[in-house]
Amino acid sequence: MELVIVGSVAYDDLVTDVGEAEGALGGSATYAGLSAAFHSRLRDPNMGGPVPVGLVGVVGDDFRVGDWEMLESRGLDLSGIERAEGSTFRWRGRYHGSMDEAETLETQLNVFGEFEPKIPAGWTSPEVLFCGNIHPAIQAAVLDSCSGAKFTALDSMNLWIMTEPTALSDVMRRVDMAILNDQEVRLIADDANLIRAAESIRSGDALVEPEGWDPADGHPGNGPDYLVVKKGENGVIAFTPQGMVALPAMPTSRVVDPTGCGDTFAGALLSMVAASGNVRPGIEEIREAIINAVVTASFTLGEFGTAGIMNLDRADYAARRDSYRRIAGV
Amino acid sequence: MELVIVGSVAYDDLVTDVGEAEGALGGSATYAGLSAAFHSRLRDPNMGGPVPVGLVGVVGDDFRVGDWEMLESRGLDLSGIERAEGSTFRWRGRYHGSMDEAETLETQLNVFGEFEPKIPAGWTSPEVLFCGNIHPAIQAAVLDSCSGAKFTALDSMNLWIMTEPTALSDVMRRVDMAILNDQEVRLIADDANLIRAAESIRSGDALVEPEGWDPADGHPGNGPDYLVVKKGENGVIAFTPQGMVALPAMPTSRVVDPTGCGDTFAGALLSMVAASGNVRPGIEEIREAIINAVVTASFTLGEFGTAGIMNLDRADYAARRDSYRRIAGV
Q1: How many CB atoms lie within 10 A of CB B318?
Q2: Residue A253 C-alpha, separation from nearest chain B C-alpha, in angstroms
Q3: Number of independent structural domains in chain B
Q4: Range of the domain at A323
Q5: Complex confidence, ipTM
Q6: pTM confidence score
């Protein structure tokens, strides 16, 4: 498997200024998977069959067969998706105003509450492993299971930063790349200056010491070599071993639903890293991957749920990417 | 005169997380003038004499002779600066946290309260006229006085947007370019989406109708053709007749004092427009001007008051601009 994505598969009830959607297919693995599958197909226009992207997650017995078939029809390998007794993870959220922050109205973990990712045999050495936003201890278990992964990345959220700082710090020291938003970066480092905050995460200074760590053992280890900071409508700044990359967002007057934009972004970015086969991507590779990730995420933003990424047309994508290149001058 | 800048000359008392400064030379005309003078000299490295940049403003009898001489030594023409009886405009402000917004502690308008800009003879047809942030009715009077200006630009602030929407709208319809920050753009258009807000200002839809306007007279007129939106640490987005330009900020871990960054930005941008002699700058000209404006403003940000821009070294500037180009990929 080229890219293994571990995360949630969910049904979302969404309210935004533009309208609402009930029981929309969502979840981090879903968005990242659809985005990565699109980029796999984009690189290989003749391919209509499977893409080298596998999802690991869990769904309940209420999961709609149509959704399963849609994901399979995009070429995704779902053999890592467990079907458990009970209901699929459900999230109810609302967005206001500039829609840059979600307000969670209700979270029903359901089958996701007992989720123990089982990595299928043959998936333990992917080019890239992406641990979507789940409990950092589970992310650590996934890293253990996929010990042959050549490049590893994770996402997280405020909840884990506040409640599990030690477990999150441990896993941050193990991955090659963290993909976080600006508020998360500031929160981890407790520094309002984003550049300083990001650098102190990469150096490890902002991370919490491991349990039982003895200062005599020396520095407990650096954070991730690559830190990609998503800033929503304000673009992206990435910190890499070769220096920083800063890019604007795709200017968008049609903001329908921001749900899944971050995962769409991560799926596109990591799909490109996986395809390159470079376990130490250079600054220009990262820039190209981010350009594609920003443009892909803008399609998710423009429709409810997965509608924008699910049926993304190649020509529409190419046109918007051209437009982005003109605007950003890249 | 190539570039005429109308605005405030002030003494500022500043408190930031890094330290404080009392009675620091400031004001919109000062920052924009020093920035424009630097770029004039950068284009003509052999020139040590006057630069084609004139300031229009007012100072009190407490204005320090050393400050006057410093401004003259940068080649600025001060014959538009009136010396009035009383104290120079004084602003006391404070910044916190990410320092993206100033908290005004005290404003003493002093001689600036009665400011009536007097444009020197010979300055009424500059390549570019910049009306810094002053009452929009005074900006209108300046536009009347400089009726030969080939390209006109203005800045404004929340105060005028809220208290003088009609006067501000009138003057917005008259200038070629508005240079505003994102909050101001959202406030004028009453729209949280920045892209929609900016487009509705340019089209004139977000502007207030002129006093006594009769709908039978048709559309009261478009807003500025060029709208440059400053987003602080989140970069810049510019709307031009040839399309949008989006650029990130210069990533900066050393934020000392944001005072004057916007005026430094405007001075550099308009200096480049003035030097081009193009009254209808194209998208790539605007991009180049913004790149230089962003980099110049980052020097103001890195020191208290005008210290960062006053003694800006050519080599330091070139090095940081190179670094910016690498980071932004432009």
Answers
A1: 12
A2: 5
A3: 1
A4: 3-328
A5: 0.93
A6: 0.95
